Amino acid sequence: MTSPHLLWLLAGVGTILVLASVFGEILRARLSPAGQNPVIENLNARISAWWVMVICLALAFIAGKPGVVLLFALCSFAALREFLTLTTHNRADHWSLVACFFLILPLQYAFLASDWYGMYSIFIPVYAFLLLPVVSSLRGSTKDFLIRVSETQWALMICVYCASHVPALLYLQIPGFEGRNVILIAYLIFVVQLSDVMQYVWGKLIGRTKVAPSLSPSKTWEGLVGGTLTATAVGTALYWMTPFSPLEAAGMCLLITLMGFFGGLVMSAIKRDRGIKDWGHLIAGHGGFLDRLDSVIFAAPIFFHVTRWVWSTT
Amino acid sequence: MTAPRAIWQGIEPVPHQRVYFANHSSNGDFVLLWTALPSPLRRQTRPVAALDYWLTSPLRAFIGREVFNAVLIDRRPDARTQDPVAQMVAALDQGSSLILFPEGQRNSSDAPLLPFKSGLYHLAKARAGVDLVPVWIANLNRVMPKGEVIPVPLICTLTFGSPLHVEPGETKDAFLARATQALLALRAPA
After folding, report:
1. To probe the interface with B, which of A94, A278, A281 has the most B CB atoms within 10 Å?
2. What share of chain A is helix, strand, coil (3-state, %, to 5)?
């Protein structure tokens, strides 16, 4: 499963994190020795959380397919928990919620692990979509029925279905790229998250014009352009570890960074509607799992299907 | 599994003697409140629970008495042999803090709170120096609704408010109304 390219990528990320940690400590020593500057404290909390996330991901990569599938199943579980905490449901939905966590989520990842594309690509949009409202309706409560079932379905689509397309990349069969699929995951996550980080950095440095002031105060045009272009440039420079040509890599990077940005925007709209700032509190400095995964969740299915369409034989 | 999150909004988790009073929506909520306390506080905190529920089977009796060291009071005025307020005061005098659900039963109605029972007031009068801390428990009724067996893992939050005391000359109704308001005020997310 491990390939020299993956090690290179991990070493690169490790170097970035070492530099970021040193930089963060210097900033803290200069500007916030007693922890009084919240921006710097948050920055350092984010960097430490990145270490944990990168180490978890690296361990999963080393463990191979089962490790990656398990890691994303756990991420889905945490994300679903954050999402369903905020959705509308009442006592009549109890069994459909139980089914979301303990039946649909494990089944989706089990279908994935058994490489049953025909099933995992339609299981939630077809079977869960049709059967969950039945479970809710059998309990007889009609109040807010459509809102309840659609929000539950949305939660499943985002947190389980879309998220499961990250490990699904392992099951593509790309001629000449056998045994290296894990690179696709590392590449997707690296480019999208780099774009997020660079949007944050560019936005903090030169951000003036807000993209959607009513949705998110921190998303600026300067950050968006700077972040996506930086991530696309870095991603294109890494084309040699992917099945893509330089031009194709640039197109893919642009596609997934934009999808990532839109993901952040849509998820911000939901958070804003529910009156919260973060989805959760489990990842220090970042908020919840969904705050960190929103961009990857939106980019993953598109990245998966485009790659499958153009390059994969399955 | 529900990743409970404690928000100490009006008070710090320090080892003062306290009566935590909370909304009661599920059988799991005193366990949740208990686990949200730092462990030194947890050891000296006893839940107040209904004898007529917890002594109905040997397993419940074991869990209630031995595991959680509950102060078991009888909710049935005609059947009880001990005065619930006297039992709670005795537990306070032994140095324990208490967890109390002044609604007296699980709330599965649409109202946010059921009317408080008077025990909270009598307890506050009897031991005026003890802090009465309101704790709003959010979401647990959705994790485990009354009568369900399998919990749904949603995120619960516990918001701890500022402590209350009975004012000199305050009537029972006025105090209970004030305590109810203090608890309801914690509902908004911090």
Report:
1. A94
2. 75, 0, 20
